[in-house]
Specification:
564 residues, alpha+beta, Sulfite Reductase Hemoprotein, domain 1, Sulfite Reductase Hemoprotein, domain 2, five-stranded antiparallel beta sheet, 17 helices, disordered C terminus, binds siroheme, binds iron/sulfur cluster
Length: 564
């Protein structure tokens, strides 16, 4: 007898292409929430129902329902935002959201704390600004991420265009989005067909990211489908395909695990769209629809075999993938400060702690970015390290931009310790329903304590990659941090160590379920040895392995095609 499909498969199947009873739920003024099944469908429209977890207990005591509000996520391929869009997004943050604008680890914006009655005007305003929230969440292809400097060279620009094209062309086709949020015509009768996704969409979320070597600033091996742009003689020759990356895991369940994507071959730009679509289609047909925990592409590959998947891909494509081309990554962080493109125009990368744009004391990030948007003639690029690039600036405008940056306390990248500049933290409490421990709110505290230890050992300039996640789902891609804290419970984390600084080796658990004192106690002697024994330019993670402090963990899969 066939195993019973997961509940969500039935919800999708019966949703009339993602409509469910969302419209009725939005109109119900008795509660701040919508029906449970509709919360699942709402994700496909780019929104999560949440409640303020700081207030849960208090409201329960007062016999009030939880303080429901909605998180909204934009779909911004490659993280590109025009100044006009920025001003709209900023106004929405001020009018409707509770905690400013939040740049995510997939280079887009989130707004938190939007009340049910404000959801429709907010989504409508985002669309009027020529952006969307469709498929920013849900079991579909999510926001396609790409190395965020398209103007740096013509090959960069071309690669970015491909990322934007995939994002647009492989998005769901349902008219439910227009109907619900943009007063589009109401569907009568049968739902329209979804050519790629069918009635039940994908078994699970699907992520595509494009990196342009030597920069792996999007963590290409953490994607379901990673595209490694290959430039030859300055021109874009095509893309290596890397499949099956993913970070999510569940504590205590070894059948779930983070996994790096494997390089399976090379396609020309002309073959890319078809190859990407067929990878998604095979995952649609082969992915596990019984256990959502095992539904990502990484598990499909480990269950069916990567060779079998590749053979099926080539069969459906009608051509063989070419052998992967050599590539080399040298970095997966952002490069701060000014950088000149091939065309003589300039790009300024600013550090935004945890991607949170808010006005706090001297640091008036929300206001500062608004002032920049009022005068900037290029555009903005959000990065997968939660930062922002003021892109495409004429040399003559640099001083004016610098003055606004300094006036609003946004020039921290000039003075901050290297560990601070490279730290990433997921949102976690109070909005994330899955958080087991603090992350974004804890980052400033743990950074201060780590900086004190690093300073003691003369390591303030060592660019150690720190990543914090409030649970093992891994939204800050913690398994690729040289130091990572993965939440276990209030104030308790797994301490993981030993990733490289290029996103090609995962870390391993060094201490399980420990508190801050134990974390600092474990790290201090390692910092001492690193300071005394490291080789020139040797990263902290690499040092821990070379010195024998850590033994290499058996890799599930080694990304092939890497030039050592
Ligand atoms: Fe994530 C679920 C936030 C990037 C793996 N993620 C969530 C939810 C929606 C919680 C939920 O399901 O109720 C979090 C909302 C928190 C909040 O209050 O905003 C959340 N994820 C985020 C963001 C905002 C983290 C951040 O601090 O920036 C990132 C939004 C990205 C975007 O713009 O689309 C974010 N999430 C990631 C990444 C990193 C990446 O994609 O590069 C990962 C690891 C890569 C991967 O997908 O494997 C990631 N998020 C997850 C998972 C684990 C999925 C799995 O395969 O097991 C969950 C849980 C789930 O899907 O069930 C999750
Ligand atoms: Fe929430 Fe966990 Fe993702 Fe952090 S890693 S945002 S706690 S789901």
């Amino acid at each position: 007898m066939a195993a019973k499909l997961s509940e969500l498969e039935y919800i999708k199947e019966n949703s009339r292409q993602l409509r469910g009873s969302i419209a009725e739920g939005l109109a119900d003024t008795v509660t701040g929430s919508i029906a449970e099944a509709d919360t699942k469908l709402l994700k496909f429209h780019g929104s999560y129902q949440q409640d303020d977890r700081d207030l849960r207990e208090e409201r329960r005591k007062q016999k009030l329902e939880p303080l429901y509000a909605f998180m909204l996520r934009a779909r911004l391929p490659g993280g590109v935002v025009t100044p006009a869009q920025w001003l709209v997004f900023d106004r929405l943050a001020c009018d409707y959201a509770s905690s400013g604008l939040r740049i995510t680890t997939r280079q887009t914006f989130q707004w938190h704390g939007i009340l049910k009655r404000d959801l429709k005007p907010t989504i409508a305003a985002i669309n009027h600004a020529m952006a969307s929230t469709i498929a920013a969440c849900g079991d579909v292809l999510r926001n396609v991420v790409a190395t965020p400097l398209p103007q740096q060279s013509s090959a960069h620009a071309e690669a970015y265009d491909w990322a934007a094209r995939l994002s647009a062309e492989l998005a769901p086709q349902t008219t439910a989005y227009h109907e619900l949020w943009l007063d589009g015509e109401k569907l009568v009768g049968e739902a329209e067909p979804e050519p790629l996704y069918g009635r039940t969409y994908l078994p699970r979320k699907f992520k595509i990211g494009m990196a342009i070597p030597p920069l792996n600033d999007i963590d290409v091996f953490a994607q379901d489908l990673g595209l490694i742009a290959i430039r030859e003689g300055g021109a874009l020759a095509g893309f290596n395909l890397a499949i099956g990356g993913g970070m999510g895991a569940t504590h205590g369940d070894p059948s779930t695990y983070p996994r790096l994507a494997e390089v399976i071959g090379f396609v020309t730009p002309g073959q890319l769209r078809e190859a990407a679509e067929q990878v998604i289609a095979i995952q649609r047909d082969w992915g596990d629809r019984v256990q959502r925990k095992h539904a990502r592409l990484k598990y499909t590959l480990d269950n069916r075999g990567t060779d079998a998947f590749k053979a099926e891909l080539e069969r459906r494509l009608g051509f063989a993938l070419r052998p992967a081309r050599p590539f080399r990554f040298d970095h997966n962080g952002d490069r701060y400060g000014w950088l000149e493109g091939e065309d003589g125009r300039w790009h300024l990368t600013l550090h935004i702690e945890s991607g949170r744009l808010l006005d706090r004391g001297e640091q008036r990030l929300l206001t500062g970015m608004r002032e920049l948007a009022k005068v900037h003639t290029g555009d903005f690029r959000l990065t997968c390290n939660q930062n922002v690039i003021v892109a495409d600036v004429e040399a003559a405008d640099r001083a004016r931009i610098d003055a606004i940056v300094a006036a609003h306390g946004m020039d921290g990248y000039r003075q901050q310790s290297a560990i601070r500049r490279h730290a990433i933290a997921c949102v976690a409490l109070p909005t994330c329903g899955l958080a087991m421990a603090e992350s974004e709110r804890y980052l400033p505290t743990i950074l201060g304590r780590l900086e004190a230890r690093l300073e003691h050992h003369g390591l303030l300039d060592a660019p150690i990659l720190l990543r914090l996640s409030g649970c093992p789902n891994g939204c800050s891609r913690p398994y690729l941090g040289e130091i990572a804290l993965v939440g276990r419970g209030p104030g308790r984390y797994d301490l993981r160590l030993g990733a490289d600084f290029v996103g090609q080796r995962m870390n391993q658990t060094y201490r399980e379920n420990v508190d801050e004192a134990a974390i600092l106690e474990a790290l201090d002697p390692l910092f001492a040895r690193y300071a005394a024994e490291r080789a020139e330019h040797e990263g902290f993670g690499d040092f821990l392995l070379r010195s024998g402090i850590l033994v290499p963990a058996p890799a599930r899969r080694i990304p092939a095609g890497v030039v050592a």
